[in-house]
Design brief:
The complex is a heterodimer of chains A (262) and B (395).
Chain A lengths: L2 H12 L3 E7 L5 H13 L4 E5 L10 H12 L4 H12 L6 E4 L2 H7 L1 H11 L3 E3 L9 H9 L5 E2 L1 E3 L7 H5 L6 E4 L15 H9 L6 E4 L5 H4 L8 E4 L1 H9 L4 H14 L2
Parallel strand pairs in A: 1-2, 1-9, 2-3, 3-4, 4-5, 6-7, 7-8, 8-9
Helix pairs in contact in A: 2-4, 2-12, 4-6, 6-7
Chain B lengths: L5 E2 L2 E5 L5 H14 L3 H15 L5 E3 L1 H7 L2 E6 L9 H14 L4 E6 L3 H12 L3 E7 H6 L1 H9 L3 E5 L6 H15 L3 E3 L10 H9 L1 H14 L5 E5 L4 H7 L9 E9 L10 H4 L2 E4 L1 E5 L25 H8 L3 E7 H15 L5 H14 L7 E6 L7 H14 L1
Parallel strand pairs in B: 4-14, 5-6, 5-8, 6-7, 9-10, 9-14, 10-13
Antiparallel strand pairs in B: 1-2, 2-12, 3-4, 11-12
Helix pairs in contact in B: 2-4, 4-5, 4-9, 5-7, 9-11, 10-11, 14-15
The chains are: A alpha/beta (262), B alpha/beta (395).
Chain lengths: 262, 395
């Protein structure tokens, strides 16, 4: 079974909320990234998103943009991320999601990309510039590669009548974007966020995760009766920047956040 | 897959989920508008009374004599604001108003589309923000000032390479945030569907006029139609009415910068690798990791790493031939047009002209070439001066 689905099922049985972090790969280097991922897993993170840097990250705010530019300067690319994942897998079973832009996949070759994900153990994909209507080729490739990697569906506050279509066949979890536009808007959620989260939850068979602009458990307190968990990206990167990418700090943040949503 | 959004394997709608409803609303509003007589009447009214259309198809007598073939110039440089960009802006802002939007945003490189959008926004009483890379703001200070005079806010973009590509990224980010009341006026034949189609339809007027004019003057269609290509808005407008006339050769001219072999160029077609950027799948300059590579051209308006998806399709089907012209070749052509015809062209348009001169070598005095003179060169005089000084210093 897919590691994300397995973990989500476990949390459901336990009646617990999920917590996911995002970090851009290769900051300050790939070894540190691996250590940070492992430390978080040991601290109880439910899944990690690994950002593969791209030159034109249009769905990201300034924090992840800068992280992405730095990583590119450090020479980080998809091939190195696959290699790191392969190494990580010999030591750690953390549910792992690659977050990347579609051109990175197209350039690598869609079929080969799907095979490599399956081979090294990438459990999920988030491709923010690949809306439902454009997913056919990638889905087909993932299916042909053994159906081991899930394409995570994103839902936006304005998705409305599109929601049933987006959820049909969705697996793992559904990623509810809490605000319009880009990542990292510091808890400035969309004005109708509550109503919107409810409308997704009411028709979803899989866990509903909330992301974009979340920093602390307090930010999501008002929504905890609806959502199944939260994703923290920009704030986590800021935190890592400020402590020099210390893996103990990463673990501490995970433990605190998890405790805050118990 | 929404097959309507594709030109062969190019085009599509590669945007975040937040924008998908916006795009389908836009598509619906656009298709209704272009079938609505009152909308078309308004659009044509402003093109005539405000932009100053129709503009001439000028027979360039001295050039024709020198190059031994008939050369006609479609004078988009005579439009209000000095380039073809205003045709599309009038169309899109009328559409924005019709959709009840109160704010417009735009990206700009050289500043021509920014100035055109600021102009349209002033005319139709809309709030306007123009995203422009820091590098371009420094290179094009005159246009920055014009936009401000017209009441627009110019937003400096410092991310990435701080040029057109990054200004476009920032405009897309803002659009995703503010689409509920904001209309994104894209200036080139790029972006997610329906933008490439919309820009083509609002630029089609170039070839509609040119076709009628050449039939009046010559009684037959031209042998070749030539236009420069960055994202490809003047060229798609110049080609539109001739695409079905298979006897007319169509040529798109990209910027070869310092030369394709140097890697410092803006020819998305030259290496022919498809990619996905700014909402579309098309040919795209990229490095070994699939990151977008910076384009280089002396012309800020052609300095773009991609090209409109319909152009990619027209290339693959062989209907249009795409060639490229270096900085040096285009500057020589630019000076020649100044001296022989008394017309200072935009550096962008001079690329097309340089290729017309090359083509003319293989033509006879009875052949006819129609070229789109997409803009005037007032904005470029500093660049030209710097280039000429540099050139002299190299001697």
């Amino acid at each position: 079974m897919n590691r994300i689905e397995e973990r989500m099922n476990y949390l459901k049985e336990q009646g617990k909320k999920a917590f996911i972090t995002y970090i851009t790969a290769g900051l300050p280097d790939m070894d540190s990234t691996k250590k940070i991922l492992k430390a978080q897993f040991e601290a109880g993170v439910d899944a990690v998103e690994l950002g593969i840097p791209f030159s034109d990250p249009v769905a990201d705010g300034p924090v992840i943009q800068n992280a992405s530019y730095k990583a590119i300067k450090n020479g980080v690319n998809l091939v190195k991320c696959f290699k790191m994942t392969e190494e990580l897998r010999s030591e750690c079973e953390v549910p792992l999601v690659f977050m990347l832009y579609y051109n990175t996949i197209v350039h690598y070759g869609i079929d080969n990309f799907a095979k490599e994900c399956s081979r090294v153990g990438v459990d999920g994909l988030i491709v923010p510039d690949l809306p439902f209507e454009e997913q056919d080729l990638l889905r087909e490739a993932l299916k042909n590669a053994g159906d081991e990697t899930i394409l995570i569906q994103l839902v936006a506050p304005v998705s409305k009548e599109r929601i049933p279509m987006l959820l049909e066949g969705a697996r793992g979890f559904v990623y509810c974007v809490s605000s319009m536009g880009v990542t990292g808007q510091e808890a400035q959620f969309h004005k109708n966020v509550k109503e919107y989260l409810n409308s997704v939850k009411s028709v979803s068979n899989i866990p509903v995760m909330m992301g974009f602009g979340i920093r602390t458990p307090e930010d999501i307190k008002p929504f905890l009766d609806t959502i199944d968990g939260a994703i923290v990206g920009s704030h986590f990167i800021n935190l890592m920047e400020s402590c020099g990418y210390n893996e103990n700090k990463a673990a501490e943040y995970v433990r605190e956040f998890k405790a805050g949503i118990e | 897959m929404n097959s309507k959004a594709y030109y062969g394997e190019f085009g599509g709608q590669y945007v975040s989920e937040s924008l998908m409803n916006t795009l389908s609303e836009l598509d619906k509003a656009f298709e209704e508008a272009i079938r609505d007589e009152s909308f078309i009447k308004d659009y044509e009214y402003y093109l005539k009374e405000y932009v100053g259309r129709e503009n001439p198809l000028y027979f360039a007598e001295r050039l024709s004599e020198k190059y031994g073939t008939k050369i006609y110039l479609k004078r988009e440089d005579l439009n209000h604001t000095g380039a073809h960009k205003i045709n599309n802006v009038i169309g899109q802002i009328l559409l924005a108003k019709r959709m009840g939007k109160t704010k417009v945003i735009a990206e700009t490189g050289a500043g021509q589309h920014g100035v055109a959008t600021a102009t349209g926004a002033a005319l139709f009483n809309m709030k306007c923000k123009v995203y422009m890379g820091k590098e371009d703001i420094e290179r094009q200070s005159l246009n920055v000032f014009r936009m401000k005079m017209l009441g627009a806010e110019v937003v400096e973009v410092t991310t990435g390479s701080a040029t057109l590509k990054d200004a476009t990224n920032e405009a897309i980010r803002t659009w995703a945030k503010e689409a509920e009341d904001t209309f994104y006026v894209i200036g080139s034949a790029v972006g997610p569907y329906p933008y490439p189609k919309m820009v083509k339809e609002f630029q089609r007027v170039i070839s509609k006029e040119a076709k009628r004019q050449i039939l009046e003057k010559e009684g037959r269609l031209p042998d070749a139609v030539v236009a420069c290509c960055g994202g490809g808005s003047n060229s798609i407008g110049m080609f539109a009415e001739f695409i079905d006339d298979s006897e007319v050769k169509l040529v798109g001219v990209e910027a070869a910068g310092l030369g394709i072999e140097t890697g410092k160029h803006a020819s998305a077609m030259a290496l022919g690798e498809p990619g996905v950027l700014h909402g579309m799948r098309s040919y795209l300059l990229q490095d070994n990791d699939g990151n977008v590579q910076l384009a280089h051209s002396i012309s800020a308006g052609l300095d773009y790493p991609g090209i409109g998806p319909e152009h990619a399709y027209l290339r693959d089907t062989g209907r249009v031939e795409y060639v490229s012209i270096t900085d040096r070749e285009c500057m020589d052509a630019l000076m020649e047009l100044c001296k022989l015809e008394g017309i200072i062209p935009a550096i962008e348009s001079a690329h097309a002209l340089a290729y017309v001169f090359k083509m003319a070598e293989k033509m006879t005095k009875d052949n006819i070439i129609v070229m789109c003179l997409s803009g005037r060169g007032d904005k470029d005089v500093h660049t030209v001066a710097a280039y000429l000084e540099g050139k002299d210093m190299n001697k």
